[in-house]
Every structure is written in C-alpha cells, then in structure tokens.
Amino acid sequence: MKETILLFSLIGFFLVGQDLPKQPNIIFIFADDWGYGDLSIHNSSFVKTPNIDRLAKEGADFQAFSVLNPVCSPSRVAVMTGQYPARHSVHGHFATVASQIQRNMPDWLDPNVVMLPRLLQQAGYKTAHFGKWHLTNTHVPDGPSPTEYGYDEFACFNVSPKFKQLHPDHSIDKAIQFITTNKDKPFFVNLWIHETHTPHYPKQEFLKNHATLDEQKQVYAAIVEEADAKIGQILETLVSLGIDKNTLVIFSSDNGPEFTGAEKELMDNSTGKGLGTYFSVGETAGLKGRKRSLFAGGTRVPFIVRWPVVVKEGIIDKKSHLSAVDLLPTFCELAGIDLPENYLPDGESFVDLLRGNNFKRTKPIYWQWKFSNHRKNFWASAAVQDGKWKLYVNQNSGQQALFNLDHDWAEQDDISNQNPEIVQLLLEKINDWEENLPTSAPEQCFSATRK
C-alpha cells in the first residue's frame, strides 16, 4: 500500500512539472514607501486594498519577505542585479553628483553587470520598464538609457533629464498598452509605481470615499485606493486577454513607510510640489522602524504572488524567508535561463516554493545602512540573517540585537544577552562580508560633470 501511494505521489510530481507553463509572463509591481501594514489583509487601521487582497486570495501572501535596503535606489539595485547593492557601491538613493561624491557612490548603476531584464531579453522575452527608475537621477545629465540595461521599451520618471519624464499617473496605462501588444509572446514588465511616495496628489474621487477620516489619513487612504484600483486594471486586462493563468504577478514595495512629518507647517516638499510628508501615515503593522531603518518596519514589505496554474490559492506563509536578491535567480529559472558562469548571485531561486514545496535558504542574508543611525529604532548599520537567527549591529556604538525568527516573527524580543556565542558568530559573518565589499565606486559610472 505504501509503495502504491509513493508511486502515485511521484507520478503527480512529474505531471505537475510537465504542466508548468514554459516561459510565463512576469509582472513585477514595485510600490514606493508602501508599508507592510498598508494592506487590508495586513490589518491596516484605515486603508482598503480590495484588488491587492484579491491577488493574495487567488495566490500567496509571503509574509517573511525583505528588501535589502531601507531606501529606494539600493533596494532596486538588488532586484535588478540579484546582488547586494553594496557590491555595486550603491549605499543610498541617487541624488546630485555632489551628493554621490560625498557618499562614495557612482552616479548610476553600471549597465554592464549581469542584469535581470537583459537575461530575460536574451531568452526571448519582450521587456519593459514603466514608472520610477531612480537607478540614476534627474540631476545627472548623462545617465544611461534604460535600454542599456536590457529593456525593449521604457517610459520612466526619475531618469536622466535627457529623456522625457513620464507622469507617474501614466505608468499603469503604459504597462497595459505593452501587455496588450505583446500578449502572444512571453513578456517581462518591471512596473515601479509612485505610490505612496511624496509628493501626494490625491484625486477628489478617491478623497470623498474617506471623508470620515482625519485629514492625514484621508489623503493617504485616497492615494492607496487609487493605486489599488489601477492594479485591479492590470489584473482585469490579463483576464480579458486570456493570459492571466500564464502570468506571474507580484506586488511588493521598495522599503517601509516614510517617516511622518510632525507638523503641517513643517511639511517636507523636497520631492516636488504637492502634499508632503505630513500625510505619510503609512503603517508597519507594529514592526519597529520605518523607511531609513534596517529594522523590520523599514525592510519587511508586502510580497503578494498570483499565478493561477502554479501557486495555490489563499496561501499565507510566515516561515519562508525571501529577499529581493532572490528574484533574479527565480525569474531566470522560470524562463529556463542558466545564470552566467562568472556571475555570483547573492540570492536563491524559490521556484520550488511557488510549486508548493518547502524552501530552505542555504545562504545568509546581509544588510548594510550607513545613514540616519542616530534615531531610536534606526541605529542598526548592518544586519545578517542565518537560518532562524537575525543579528542587528552598529559597530560604532557597539549596539546589538538578536532575534529568533522561528519564535519571534515581529522581532520584538532581543535575546542577544542570552546568546553571546551566536552573536559573536553572526558578527564575524558581517565583518567578513563587509571586508569583501568594494571600497570605491566604479569610475565608468561617473558623470562627466564630476570635478
């Protein structure tokens, strides 16, 4: 009897493998400053996200996913390269050339390194990038075109000023147009939306739906609702075209929510005209830290996956620790791509997890953050996770915090004093990792305007 059950199990396993779509379409929706708690399904106290909730209901909610930096540009570098952003000397967001010089950063991400869209493009995918870019900055006049990174099409904002700046409102419209045009071939879309980053431009049609909230929450809820509605348009487009079952859709965010401005009179409008950080009242679901903090509130973000023929409906997974560097090897395995021989990925493919099998990391995950370390819950300058253990440190101040993620998903109980040997072992891992990072930015990524 046992042998019969085993035989049928093996037959079922191989049939599932054969039925998996070849080269599925991939849409990666990367929101901006969207907190882990900014979803109805994550118990937001005031926002509603019916369309993202639908993605989760029809797919999986991986609740132990983290990005590799608590701010925009380096977080996105990890997605594009499958490597830690510090390996590319990208330590913070791209800004002015003078700022990059001060922070020992390049002026753009090197387009010549192994790049996710280029690998997919070489495998026959039509590739596109719509929305935010921020792998250089509008202050850098000679930044490369996104086409140099492996995209067939792009329409972006926060790109070099020699290219037309896309209005953020049009990002999803561009994506829908691209999907419709390329519905009969495999495609990859990086859709990096503006919400919920400042400046906020709430529309009256969404504001009125939240009239019972206070002014701050009303604005923020309107911004979230509009983005959620547009994501619903993406899903309806896939269904109407008959390609939703062969399309992997992922929703995530580049880091946790913005630090809220304390007073309306002191609103920070540095990111543009419109409403400033006074209205940035995103939630972390109780996780400590926010944007610019390595703690979970700054780096643990939504990671919702829908792929009807592969990912079972309604999965909630708090145990599988995934990170942004895992996307490149995962997408490449799905597309049937072998990684280049001389390429050293920092991530691991989680295709088996999508198929319903267990996922166990074999590599530690590392974080580094050099700025804003003076605030409470912002002090960590580096971190490592190895198995169930996660250590935060600040080498300058000597502060440390250790968490057992098997029993403490929210990272609330610091047990470093009870486990000095584990702290020392993980601290050595961080030191060894940082010793092998580059000490200077690549000169081929310097603007000609550097003096």
What is the average of the pLDDT values? 93
The coarse overall form would be: globular
How do the SSEs run, as a string of H and E? HEHEEHHHEEHEHHEHEEEHHEEEEH
Q: How much of the sequence is in beta strands?
A: 5-15%
Biggest sheet: strand arrangement: 5-4-6-1-7-8-2-9
Which architecture of the largest domain does the CATH hierarchy give at level 2? 3-Layer(aba) Sandwich
The total of helices stands at 12
Main beta-sheet strand count, sense and barrel state:
8 strands, mixed
Q: Which CATH class of the largest domain is shown?
A: Alpha Beta
Number of strands: 14
Radius of gyration: 21 Å
How many domains make up the 3D coordinates? Answer: 2
Overall helicity? 25-40%
CATH level 4 superfamily of the largest domain: Alkaline Phosphatase, subunit A
Structural class: alpha/beta
Describe, in plain words, how this protein is organized in 3D.
With 451 residues, this protein is α/β, with parallel strands linked by helices. It folds into two domains: 22-364, 3-Layer(aba) Sandwich (Alkaline Phosphatase, subunit A), CATH 3.40.720.10; 366-435, Arylsulfatase, C-terminal domain, CATH 3.30.1120.10. The chain has twelve helices and 14 strands. An eight-stranded mixed beta sheet has the order 5-4-6-1-7-8-2-9, sandwiched between helices. A four-stranded antiparallel beta sheet has the order 11-12-13-14, covered by helices on one side. Helix 6 (171-181) packs parallel to helix 8 (215-241). It is globular. The N and C termini lie far apart (77 Å).
